[in-house]
Amino acid sequence: MVKYVHGYVGVLVDLKHIVIILSMFFMMHSMEKILQRYERYTYADKAHPLKEPETQEELHNEYRELKRRFDALQRSRSHLMGENIDTLTLTELQQLELQLETTLKHIRSQMFVYEYGLGSSVA
């Protein structure tokens, strides 16, 4: 029986050492993976440098395009609000009317869904 206990303890000690060795191996393996990822991301920045700053002319062209689009949106908004419509042609007025009617239909359908949803949850 004592021999069995000593053998069992010996196996447990050996298992403890194996667990320690394996955990160190996996820890080192994880550490190695972490270092590899760090190196990959660190050197990836150098391998793919950022785009050179745009030239002054490119920036100016982009500014002009954004300004043009902004002005068009401002005009469209003011027309939808009923402002400055005296400068519109008949075709533009018809398009504006159609757009307003479509928007109004959409708003009314949303109101109906909202009201219908409230009616069914209260009842």
TrEMBL record:
What is the superkingdom listed in this entry's lineage? Eukaryota
Transmembrane spans: 6-27
Question: Where in this chain does the entry annotate a coiled-coil region?
Answer: 56-83
Q: Name one GO molecular function term.
A: DNA-binding transcription factor activity
Q: Which Pfam families match?
A: K-box
Q: Which residues form the K-box domain?
A: 56-123
Q: Do the record's keywords include ATP-binding?
A: no
Which controlled-vocabulary keywords does the entry list? Coiled coil, Membrane, Transmembrane, Transmembrane helix
For this record, the Gene Ontology CC terms, alphabetical, are:
nucleus
The name under which this protein is listed is MADS-box protein 27
Q: Which organism is it from?
A: Erycina pusilla
